[in-house]
Amino acid sequence: MSTIKPFCAIRPATDKVDKVASHAVERYSIATIQNILATNPVSFLQVIYSARAQKENYTDQLHAIKNKFEEFRSKNIFEQDTEPCYYVYRQVKEKSSHIGIIALASVDEYNKGIIKIHEQTLAEREKKLKEYLTICDFNAEPVCLTHPYNKHLHELLYSKTKGKPLYDFTSDNIQHSVWKVSESAELKKISELYSSMPNLYIADGHHRAASSALLAASNKQSNPAHTGKEPYNFFMSAIFADTELTIFNFDRMVSSLNGHSKGSFFNELEKSFDVISFGDKVCKPTSAREISLYIDKQWYMLHIKDGLNEGADPVNSLDVSMLSNFILAPILNITDLRNDKRIAFIPGVKDIEDIHNNVDSGKMKAAFCLYPISFEELKAVADIGKEMPPKSTWIEPKLESGLLIYSLNN
Q1: Do 17 and 139 lie in a common domain?
Q2: How far apart are CA 261 and CA 313, in angstroms?
Q3: Measured between alpha carbons, how far is 237 from 185 in angstroms, rounded to an integer?
């Protein structure tokens, strides 16, 4: 049984939403951020980057963010709904449409494993995000959750899109639309549909969910009147059926061949893979058990040899794990993907020119392209309580920061 809750969102004034909502910081270049800060005084980036004057003290940076957010509220850049709502959200990007619902998910169900994870988190990042939540008191970017397709839920969400949207705007050629659901019968129906689902799965935002759990544990310990209904017991989530998500690959680039010449490197590769040359013609995997390699301005397809890796568990069966287990670790001596400076990650949504530029310039020695992981593979890993290697998936849609905000302060 999965529990979701409606909430009273803090959200941009309708006439300002297209200027307030912003991408996550990492999706912008530094030059673009500087331009937005110079030209758009109501961008949510102004809130995030209000900390830039406090260069040394992280706590002071967080207080600056909190103060800027409160300033935005006092200027009516943001307003708050007065009744709990679910928010139907649709994103259209390059003719690909994604529809889901923004609601609150339960920290308790995250702790119990009803909300399942598939990716390991870093303790230090969890602690920093927990401190962020403690001081700033809000969720500005939802955790992305997913579940197997549900026909009745699908029909209900699409029926809501027939009405007039609360928001409907386009930013960077991506259309965002939001509809409010506040009528009690509809709220109850949506809650019942989710309660019939045995599990939800984190698609993106593992650290945000983990930090919310840390915050709840800390607040529970310090609150003798704890009931389980306090705002800190929940976190804002964007929930999509698996059919509404697009999972892209996360490719790898390495800056060293670990002392190998190109010839000796290929000799090692051929112990586990059949290697096919494509010359200067770009080749990308078209199915699982294929990994493409770019090195010295040449492309190669690596097919894992028959019989190799048979009987592996759901984690070690993944192409991303086979890359680590048969190439990165034994040949290149790269075993710590989180900290080794010789490896870099590049989302599969990036243009192939990014790979060419990095390798051709000499900044990177080689690049490996992977076939995207499926929802079934993600679910299989989560269901056995395991985690994928870091940077295994790039999942869309990516939601805007500051579009809907959940206050952790009663």
Answers
A1: yes
A2: 33
A3: 22
Tens of pLDDT, residue by residue over 26-37, are 788 889 999 999
Are 129 and 231 in a shared domain? yes
Say whether both 241 and 263 belong to one domain. Answer: no
In a domain, 382, yes or no: no
Please say if the pLDDT value at position 77 is more than 80. yes
The answer to whether residues 25 and 402 touch, using CB atoms and an 8 Å cutoff, is no
What pLDDT score does 54 carry? 65
The number of domains in the chain is 2
Domain extent at residue 20: 4-247+396-407
**Partner residues linked to 292 by β-bridges:** 301, 369
254 and 236 inside one domain: no
Give domain status of residue 380, yes or no. Answer: no
Q: For residue 336, give the H/E element and its range.
A: none
**120 or 237, higher pLDDT:** 237
Q: Which range (5-19, 47-61, 62-76, 350-364) has the least confidence?
A: 47-61
Give the burial string for 36-49 (b: 16+ CB within 10 Å, else e). bbeeeebbbbbbbb
Return the closest-CA partner of residue 398 out of 213, 209, 178, 247: 247
pTM as predicted: 0.87
Give the contacts of 108 (CB within 8 A, at least 6 positions apart).
216, 228, 233
